[in-house]
Amino acid sequence: MNRLFGSSGPKAPKATLTSAIGNIDTRISSIDVKLAALNAELTGYQTKLTKMREGPGKTALKQKALKVLQRRKQYEAQRDQLQSQVWNMEQAQTMQDNLKNTMVTIDALQSTNKALRKEYGKVDVDRIERLQDEMADLLDVGNEIQESLARSYDIPEDVDEAELDAELEALGQEVELDRELAGMEGGSALPSFMQDEVPDFIDEPPSTTGKVKEVAG
In this entry, which stretches build a coiled coil (predicted)? Predict the structure, then answer.
């Protein structure tokens, strides 16, 4: 049926650089085996030639050795060509691998770029600027509040120590004067500025004389 309708069988897989390099390496290995055999054969001929005298036998053996040597040179030339092919294909494979890696890197960068654009598109820069301005204003208000709370009241910034000394000395003199007057009049020994004043609505100050007598009695 396939022949009647002209359909072909399954296609062979396309050759790759890796498979081609493997095939050539196999051929090089085969040539190396043949070269080893030829070298062993040449060594045998060389050993025999050194022991033989000149004559037809030695000449015939020498001709065989020359043919083996010629075959070895041909195999060596083939091996060199195959090795050059392998080298070129390895270089091409390296370039191909580098290109694949480059494409993977480019795809990754494009995906990252797309994701970043999507995420940054959600960010409102103007809103961030407004938030920053509001925070700065709030910090300024907080600083003003702290400065206001830390402000001192009714305390002059510049106090003259000489005036304070004079005022303190005047208070001391007043205390001494009140003591002297109290001693002369038999009154209270407290300074005048420390004595309690009697309110205007009380006719007479409370007397403690009776209580003192009761306690004494």
Answer: 58-148
pLDDT digits (tens, 9 = 90+) for 21-34: 889 999 999 999 99
State the DSSP string of the chain.
Answer: -HHHHT---PPPPPP-HHHHHHHHHHHHHHHHHHHHHHHHHHHHHHHHHHHSPSSHHHHHHHHHHHHHHHHHHHHHHHHHHHHHHHHHHHHHHHHHHHHHHHHHHHHHHHHHHHHHHHHHTT--HHHHHHHHHHHHHHHHHHHHHHHHHT---S--SS--HHHHHHHHHHHHHHHHHHHHHHHHHT---S-GGGSPPPPTT-SSPPP-HHHHHHHH-
Where do we find the tokens 């030829």? 38
Angle between helix 56-120 and 17-51 (nearest 10): 160
Task: Tokens for 159, please give them.
Answer: 């106090």
- Summarised one tens digit per residue, pLDDT across range 58-106 is 788 888 888 989 999 999 999 999 999 999 999 998 998 999 999 999 9
